[in-house]
Design goal:
There is one protein chain. The chain is of the alpha+beta class and about 270 residues long. The protein folds into 2 domains: about 80 residues, no CATH class; about 180 residues, Reverse transcriptase/Diguanylate cyclase domain (Alpha-Beta Plaits, 2-Layer Sandwich), CATH 3.30.70.270. The protein has a 6-stranded antiparallel beta sheet with strand order 2-3-1-4-8-7, with helices on both faces. A two-stranded antiparallel sheet has the order 5-6. Strand 7 and strand 8 form a beta hairpin. Helix 1 runs antiparallel to helix 2 and helix 1 packs across helix 3.
């Protein structure tokens, strides 16, 4: 009985060592691939194929796990923004499209919240303020995760480019524009941090006349391009923004159909 228990313990220990080693090799391979270090990649692959001290079956499992972990790691790197930890544009489009498909299936409305963060993208400030920009972008990532706590289930968050961010949510109360801007004044609760210099637009997905995520993004970006709202620090608590294609201003919680590039956008409303 003691012999059986000892054998089981040994197998369990070897399995744990094998799993840890596969993660280690996958991490080293990912770093080498991202750095373009061909010599290191060749050496790691050679070591993986010639690993000793294991049976043939254990060696094959180790190799399979390491390569599978590498695939998952590279896929994550391809779909995520390294600086903020949010999805990048490609990852956001993929995940948001799946969420819109679910909303259409369930005949449920969805809301795209488009953020423009003033980060000083001019050539004169880009290099000098690199550290400040990085801190601001990380703060924005944390702010979005706090603002949309159901991300990963009912919500999708992403950094599209530079200071452009987006959130797609099925929860209407999370998409109230005026509330978002008020929250941006004190983005880190319990800390005396400066307000985030944001402009925000919201486009609504109507399952009765569905629109693709690209149309929602274009509609929201058009709203921002047609407004000259100053940075958040100078904004009053409630902001009026003219809807795209209309002259009079609307309140943040109102909804209007907006005009797209080729006639009315299907299923897209501004908020």
């Amino acid at each position: 009985m003691a012999s059986v228990a000892h054998s089981a313990f040994v197998r369990s220990a070897r399995a744990a060592v094998s799993a840890a080693r596969s993660l280690e090799v996958a991490g080293q391979l990912r770093a080498a691939i991202l750095e373009g270090d061909d010599a290191r990649i060749s050496r790691l692959l050679s070591d993986l194929l010639r690993v000793r001290g294991l049976t043939k079956g254990q060696r094959v499992r180790l190799q399979s796990r390491a390569l599978l972990n590498l695939v998952h790691s590279l896929r994550s790197a391809a779909l995520n923004d390294e600086l903020t930890g949010l999805l990048n544009r490609r990852g956001f489009i993929q995940s948001a499209t799946r969420l819109l498909d679910l909303a259409l299936r369930d005949q449920q409305a969805a809301h795209l919240v488009y953020f423009s963060l003033a980060i000083g993208d001019s050539d004169a400030t880009r290099d000098a303020d690199a550290c400040t920009r990085a801190v601001l972008l990380r703060r924005m990532g944390n702010f979005l995760r706090d603002l949309f706590p159901s991300y990963g289930v009912y919500e999708v968050l992403g950094r599209l480019s530079g200071g452009e961010f987006a959130a797609l949510t099925l929860l209407a109360d999370h998409a109230a524009r005026s509330n978002i801007l008020l929250r941006a004044r004190t983005p880190e609760r319990g800390r005396d941090a400066p307000a985030l210099p944001l402009r925000v637009a919201v486009a609504r997905f109507d399952p009765a006349v569905p629109a693709a995520i690209d149309e929602l993004l274009h509609s929201a970006a058009d709203q921002l391009s047609q407004t000259v709202t100053p940075a958040l620090e100078t904004l009053p608590p409630v902001i009026e923004v003219a809807s795209v294609g209309s002259a009079p201003p609307i309140r943040p919680d109102a909804c209007l159909t907006v005009s797209g590039r080729c006639g009315a956008s299907r299923g897209v409303t501004s908020v």
